[in-house]
Structure formats: structure tokens, C-alpha cells
Amino acid sequence: MSHIKISLLSMFTLCLITSQAARFDIVNRCSYTVWPAAIPRGGGRQLNSGQTWPLDIPAGISAARIWGRTGCNFDGSGRGSCQTGDCGGALSCSLSGKSPTTLAEFTLNGGNNKDYIDLSVIDGFNIPMQFSSTSNGCNKVLTCRDSNCPDAYHQPNDVKTVSCPGGTNYRIVFCP
Questions:
Q1: Residues 6 or more apart in contact with residue 168 via CB below 8 angstroms
Q2: Pairing status of strand 170-174 against strand 22-28
Q3: Bridge-partner residues for 37, per DSSP?
Q4: Which DSSP letter does residue 46 get?
Q5: How far is CA 6 from the centre of its chain?
Q6: Distance between CA atoms of 154 and 157, rounded to whole angstroms?
Q7: How far apart are CA 119 and CA 117, in angstroms?
Q8: From the CB of residue 159, how many other CB atoms can be counted at a distance below 10 Å?
């Protein structure tokens, strides 16, 4: 009997944890190939024009980033380089990209069961980007079409972060 209680408790806890995870649909609407990268979860991949990369991010992730790399060339082992946003010559990034990079930054379930999202061009601008919420009744849309975008951080003391309820899903569009 206690075995059943422990199993039910474990399943309930797992459901609570996974229910706060978020789906990020990363969409390339550019006329060229973009190589999105994501840290600390996701790594990176090639995204041809018109393709979408569905990426599930677990709850509790903080100081995470997604950015687009351009002009990339990788060999079969995942080694190579990118003209913008390169992350140490790796296809699957484990460190931030080299400037210039337009960044989508986020923390999931960062406090009070809220997600915090923003765009940043502090490290420069390399590709137009839109970061939007897609669920939980949260209607946030941040857009950066050029280096002067008003929705993005331009310096560290800017306040451009917005919040959504924990467990919200998001879409990042390159060349919106």
C-alpha cells in the first residue's frame, strides 16, 4: 500500500514539474539559412528558410539564450564556423555566441511562478528577431528588426524584460 502512495506521489510531482516546462518554436522566415543556437539547453542546428525547430525547455532554467547564427559551415563531426554568432566553432553550442548577436533571453519559473523574457542587442545586431508568447493568455510580442529596435536592451541598465505565467509557450521568429 505504501508503495502505491509513493508511486502516486512521484507521478504527481513529475506532472507538476513537467507542466511548467515550455515549448519554444523557433521559426526561420529569412530567405537564407539560419543556424539557431540555444544555451544552456538545446545546443544548435541548421534551420533552412521556412523550417521550424520545436525545442522543449524544462522549468527552472535561468539566464538562457537563443540566437541566430549566419554564414555557417560545419563538417560531419559538427565542427566549423559561422560569420556571425559563432560559438567556438561548434554546431551544438555550450557557450554564448561571438558578437554581433541579437539575443532572445529568458528565465523560466524565475520567481512567483513567472517566466521572464527579453530581447537584447547589447552584443550587437545580426538578424531580425521576434520573441512572443503563445499560450496562457499572455500576449507579449517583442520585435527587433534592426539595431535601433525599441523592444530590446541596448545597454545593461535598460529595463525591457516582460513576464508571463510559468509554463507559457513561446515562438522565436527570425526575419519576422
A1: 22, 115, 133, 134, 135, 136, 138
A2: parallel
A3: 44, 67
A4: -
A5: 35
A6: 9
A7: 7
A8: 6
Report which secondary-structure segment, H or E, holds 18: helix 2-19
Spatial separation of the C-alpha atoms in residues 72 and 84, rounded to whole Å: 8
Give the Cα separation of 174 and 67 in Å (integer). 9
Q: Which of 5-9, 70-74, 117-121, 126-130 has the lowest mean pLDDT?
A: 5-9
Q: What is the pLDDT of residues 21-56, one digit of tens each?
A: 899 999 999 999 999 999 998 889 999 999 999 999
Task: Give dist(CA 101, CA 135) in Å, integer.
Answer: 27
Could you tell me if 57 and 64 are in contact, meaning their C-beta atoms sit under 8 angstroms apart? Answer: yes
Buried b / exposed e over 16-26, threshold 16 CB at 10 Å, is eeeebbbebeb
pLDDT in tens, 72-86: 999 999 999 999 999
Helix (H, G, I), strand (E, B), or coil: what is residue 19?
helix
* pTM of the shown model: 0.86
Bridge partners, 143 (sequence order)? 130
* Beta bridge mates, 43: 38
